[in-house]
């Protein structure tokens, strides 16, 4: 298989999934320049809302939400934003594995937990042919050894998160989630990006209502927004 990959690479040189520049390895997904340019959240972050502490002014914006803690690998800006757009809107599915690997390398994944992906709306899933959060969660399950459960379902259509107004993203009428029966007691809720926190909170509340006792949020990216969730 490695030889076949190399032969294919000679005929069709691989390109970075984000910047589309030719890359050197047959199995590359992100070029070295894009990897170096990722805006890692290395500074101290709030364990509750996942914002870097300089962005938390006074009261944590996640006070009162249904999840205990949140964590993210990168800020939603620059190359990270471009990578998520490529995954979600250009079907660059291989990026989900890269994102999962970067989450698995540093996220606080407790060993008793079950991974649960934030479900996309069925219409959007059909249009894309896949669910980005589910791809990341499945790759994370393979890397971490944690079980993955389809514990949530999503109801009515809503406006697109990325690019939607803040009021639209926070509108409870657009956040119709419910549990598929009794939920795991210990959950790591997985999504691609943590924006206002409204979707994550709605999912966490649905899991709480179905008997989850501990819920941690893990995303690849986090918007640097200090306004309330």
Describe what this molecule looks like in 3D.
With 229 residues, the chain is α/β, with parallel strands linked by helices. 34% of the residues lie in helices and 15% in strands. The chain is built from eight helices and six strands. The protein has helices spanning 2-11, 32-37, 78-89, 94-106, 122-128, 132-144, 166-170, 198-209; strands at residues 69-75, 114-117, 152-154, 177-179, 186-194, 214-222. The strands form two sheets. A four-stranded parallel sheet has the order 1-6-5-2. A two-stranded antiparallel sheet has the order 3-4. α8 (198-209) links the parallel β5 (186-194) and β6 (214-222). The radius of gyration is 18 Å and the shape is globular. The chain starts with a helix and ends in a 7-residue tail after the last strand. The model is unreliable at 1-11 and 161-173 (pLDDT under 50).
